[in-house]
Amino acid sequence: MEKTLSLFLIYQNENNDYDTYDSAIVVAYTIDEARDINPKGKKKTIRETIKTHDYAWGTPLNYWAEYEHIHAEYIGIADITLKHRAVVCASFNAG
What we know:
Layout: E1 6-12, E2 20-28, H1 31-35, H2 46-52, E3 70-77, E4 87-93
Antiparallel strand pairs: 1-2, 1-3, 2-4
């Protein structure tokens, strides 16, 4: 039986400065996987980014939040044309 991809709203309230993401719509199999998707659309997950210190400007994820501060809500079933771990849309607060 094939798994069904779903759409999730992911958001964070910890980092609300300029040049940060506050939310995104992503495609994932589970809510935990959705929370680990990078809203920048990078291939590395949030936890991989922190673990490898793959970040700019000297602090990890200054544009988002650490995994434990990311919330996710199920929206519905993803269209078959959407790819696994895709970022459908993201909200960025430019400064």
